Amino acid sequence: MQHCLECGSVIFQYGGRKDRKFCSASCKNKYWNRQTNSRQGYHLKIIAQLDHNYKILSRLLSIGVLSIKSEDMRLLGFHFDVMTGHHRRMKRDWYECFDIRYLQMPSRISNLQYIPVEDAAVGQKP
Q1: pLDDT class of 120 with cuts at 50, 70, 90
Q2: Is residue 55 part of a domain?
Q3: By residue range, what is the domain housing residue 45?
């Protein structure tokens, strides 16, 4: 006896596939729509966090800030776990948020800079 993945009711076998997972087409549609929406929601959340980080970094660059304490970045709402690129060079961690590169140390973010367009296009390391 099998149970529907959506509503949990017993699936009655009266012809068709023997390995049915849903009791009806409506339960099947509800299940897969929920799965798709949760994945899309996750993607949208990450994109929103990247956008927020980019706005913070570009604003800092526009006012001439090239180095800032990590704690101040947290207060601005910066998401340290979200980035578009990471490179380790000479025992230092360089991160990228689209076309902005920065050196992240435990207590500071420094060397904040725009990546030259030709470097960004081919994914060159700093």
Answers
A1: low
A2: yes
A3: 2-7+23-122
What are residue 69's phi and psi, to 5 degrees? -65, 145
Q: What are phi and psi of 54, to 5 degrees?
A: -65, -40
Continuous segment of H or E residues that includes residue 119: helix 117-122
Distance between CA 126 and CA 118 in Å, rounded? 12
Report CA-CA distances (Å) from 16 to 9, 19, 20: 18, 9, 8
More reliable by pLDDT, 126 or 11: 11
Total domains, the chain:
1
Greatest Cα pair distance, the chain, in angstroms, is: 71
Domain annotation covers residue 16 = no
Residue 64 lies in a domain: yes
